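Sample intake — Flavin reductase family protein
Collected from: Pseudomonas imrae
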Amino acid sequence: MKYDPQEDNCPLPHSPFRSCVVPRPIAWISSVDEQGNDNLAPFSQCGILTFDPPMVMFAANHYPTGQRKDSAVNAEKTGWFVWNMATEALKEAVNISAMIVPSDQSEFELAGLEKIKADLSDVPMVKDSPCHLECRYVSTTVIKGSSELGTVDLIIGEVIRVHINDEYIKSDGCVDIEKVRPIGRMGYLDYTVIDNTFSMEVPMSDEIRAIMSEIMAGSAKKNETTGVE
């Protein structure tokens, strides 16, 4: 089976496109507007851009009316947002926070979530999330779609502070992802849980490995001096 999404009607009853790029992380974005109203929403069109400096992005589709998502607007106007890690234990709250509600209604309250204040801004964070990335807003790129709903605000932020619950850090200093059990978005209405990981090292010469080690060590040292925890 093959088809051209720009020209043909999909021969399947449901579009398979979003099932071909999986699993996708969920950017559980918290923000606050200029009036002090809290906002929390999940986005599965997201990811990291680079590690030096650490930067993330999420894409927020417009509503059919052309109205923009609160998360995008709040990040632009206040200059900050927080990426909270979405986990299996919090999946019901993640789903509830995806509801479309008025801007002055807090998804934290709607989902029964306890919040804590970020260190560097007034943005609230999900207390029970094992990881938070405090992000300083960098830019917005509007990507025009074939419809208002297909149009997205691509929001980029630089990670200025990282919070990780010590309970989820292993003795070797690595994050215990299998204990965290983050959820990922599949296609359709489906999600998955990361509960099985394996390691592979890319083959490289000793010379290249030494260069890469030096680069990574320099990045870690830079984080120590810029307040990234």
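Post-analysis note: DSSP finds five helices and twelve strands in the chain.
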